[in-house]
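Page header: ASSEMBLY MODEL / two components / 997 residues total.
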Amino acid sequence: MKNILPILIMLIVGLSGTAFGQEKAAEDTETETAYAFPVLKPEISLAGGYRIVDLNGSSRAEEYEYLHNSATLAGAARIFSFPHRLSLDLDLKNSKDYFGDAGYAYEDLVVFRGINRTLFHNLDNITLIDLDPSTVIPNGPMASVRDAGQQYGVKDSISNLSLSLKAPDFPLHVYIDSTLTDKNGTQQQRFLGGAGGFATTGTSPNNVGLNKVSMQRDIDWTSRDITVGVNSHLGPVEADYSHGEKRFDAGGTPVLYENYLDVVSRGKIARAAGEYPHNQISDLKGSTDTLKVHTSYTGALVASATLSKTARENRDSGASSDYFIAEGEVTWTASPRLAVFVRYRHRDTDIDAPPSVTITDRSNPLNTYTYAVQPSISSKRDFASAIVRYRLMSGLTLKSEYSFEDIRRDVVATLNIPDDTKKNTLALSADMRLVRNMTVRAKYTHMEIDNPAYNTDPNRSDEGRLSLSWIPVPRISSVVSYSIAREKRNDIIIPDDPNAKNRDTSRDRLMGSVTVAVLDNLSCTGSYAYFHNRIRQDIAIGGIPIDFDVPYKNMAQSYSFDISYLPAENLSISGGISHTIGNGGFYPIDQALLQPVDISSYSRLKTRETVVSANSEYRFRAGFAAGVQYRYTDFRDALDNPYDDINSGRVHIVLLTLSKKW
Amino acid sequence: MRARYLLLSFIACILAAGIFLAGCETLKVSKPILPMKEYERMIAGRLDANYVGTRNCLSACHVHDKIKQDFDASTMGVQLSKKSGMPLVDCESCHGPGSLAIEGLTPEKVEADAKAGKQTACDYKTLIDIKNLPAQAKSLICLKCHSANATFNLHNWNAGTHAVNDVACTDCHKLHGGPDLKVKPRDVGAMCEKCHQDIQAEFALPSHHPLPEKRVFCTDCHDPHGSQAEKLLRKPTVKATCTQCHPEKEGPFVFEHAELTEDCRTCHNPHGSVNNNLLKVQLPYLCLQCHEGHRANASTSVERKGAIYTRCTDCHSQIHGTDNPSFSGKGRFIQ
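Prediction written out in full:
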């Protein structure tokens, strides 16, 4: 693949000069009256403001807001003075939450775009179950909370930068695309201390070293993904070649160390007590080479093909993975009534882990242990699909799609994962315009899987979807959508539990929305959404027979109402309220799991979230404006389960702004 | 080896040079293997009309002054001038020849109408009726240029989900909405939700990516112009898409969680969930779908049950893969 790059560049750049010369000479003979670009007045706006925050309880109530008072700044600029075109957008809420979008073009031969979004992600401090050794049975499980009351959050920054250079008078581009991410802050690290498992730590078999720990972890992670590419028109086809490099560097505390206890097995110390690493975040590097070719015309028969090779390497452990992907598409538009779309995709995944791994006691390097590593799963996948689209009559389009996928795995027998899985899928859909302002879309999908690899994959699934959009009168528009899915698995695989067999799942979704333009300057939208997921499966718990047909359910309902009102030309008012209820849990049947305490009680959840927002802006003369934005969020753990991962909180945010447009 | 490489390069150059020089000829004359005559007829415009040029068209009346200004300031506005080195584009490239539309519109009449307080409209019905064209014909107006100018964001357009489902370029790109022909990143969500309201509803669930907050955009993960991957994913695989922002979970690791991390959707719903961390199913049932749970029976203490059956990831904290063996020497994702 690396040999292709110089060939392509030589070819495209070297020969394009000759071609341009020919083109240019022909064009120069034509006469052109020079187009005079108007002098456009730059559009510039600037806004300043202050953001007031009141938080009560968990910051997870507003997961993606930095919940501290701050001054704000926003601005925009559009400057066009041929051959330059410049656009800038900036929205700075505080040092941890901002958005910037900058674009510059010179005659559109040089085009630059840079987008940065930085947000503060409030993270959980989950309360471990109270296992104070003084109150629980001797040698029983323990919990060590080392981060009580700690607030966690990470500043996430994502930057997308692109620079494209175009040759004059010919479609030849050289470009650079990059994505840079940076995460900086603290998060909770929960892990298993003690002996690092159910291992005994002494001669008594009851002396189990199970110790759940929570502590703070500092993170400072950066990722850089940079792609350089070249593309051009090559007659009947166009070609693009790109090479990308990716690096991930884990700063902060990439490796944590814990003083583990002795691990005793069959009366002998299998691993001596010591300070061993855990929860390591590894540095990674990798590269991607991609070649794309497609037909360069618009016609009834067009095609595209992509070849890509991706390599990834774990710089700490030496594990590596290689992906080769070949993909092709052919579209044949036989007539406006009939079109056929064919796709083929091959993916070759090769994952190599080192044959052995070593772990060393940092406090005593003599305690070094080497273990054999089970090979990772490599696979080859082939996917092919064909879609036929047929317009039966005006306002009625039928589509049918058939796809086949074959997955072949290199997998060791002990994993109980089949080495060959085949999927067949048939989908039928219809788009109908029943009356002038009413359209209906219906789709049915049936899938059969031979030898599904994981229990979450079914042997058979059926999915139906119906959506209707209707505008009964010009001022009212409505949408209703319902989807239903049923999956059946004949024979689930749980190692060492051959009696586990059944699994059925169902999913139901209902969504409705009505927008009414009450007046020319007043519109309201009401929406409702309902989600219901159910699973019924045999589950295996050590120490009891299989618990058959254990149901799991989760459900959510969301109501929202939004209003937009323009009472005067220089005054806008908008607002909304939404309320979302969510609950979920599983329901074991075997009494052994219900006594003395129901094992599902620790994970059952019920949440209620209410969000109220109100915004207004008044525009004065000379481009001045004043605005106010208010947002209230109330997120509640309705079950008040102290050990689940839901924490209640309430937040009020008020933003006052003054702006000026030039 | 070096001689072989040079020979291969030379042969490739010779072969490609032929294709390339032929390509220069086809750059201005589209020569599809099979033309789409029906659609091309729809976008040819009136055959009895003549091309009059943008300046004649737009200066005939002042109805389009704002549109002209926006267009001048846009990417395509640059293409009004041959000096730009870009392919020439003007109003008639899309709307068809305009002579009939401005017939009888004299500067005097426009001025008189303006004094009378009314705008002078052209006979727009003689132009191409773009609004009522089928989606394929609408897109063809754009594709007749954009399929031959090395715009590789359209590489997978023709067989992509949007094209198959009759979505046209103009459904998303408002060419006369302002100088930005691309949708602004923070407006992408609202635009996609017009059709994908069921997905919008998922983002209202308690655990969601910050799309309603406008911190991430639909186009971070999906490429609306088509993709080599399923669900219009921007990257070739689900894992490659997710690890753009979550690189710490990419691996490879010494101990992989079977193949599950190749498709993050096995455990996570990327749009939204009632469960924390976008989990499709609440822990511990999520894991119990495939794994036997730790020993628990009627004689098991409340403390032990509580320690085990809250969240599996409290202990199996490296569930996405790890380089450290657990105490048993196996990959239990504990260390």
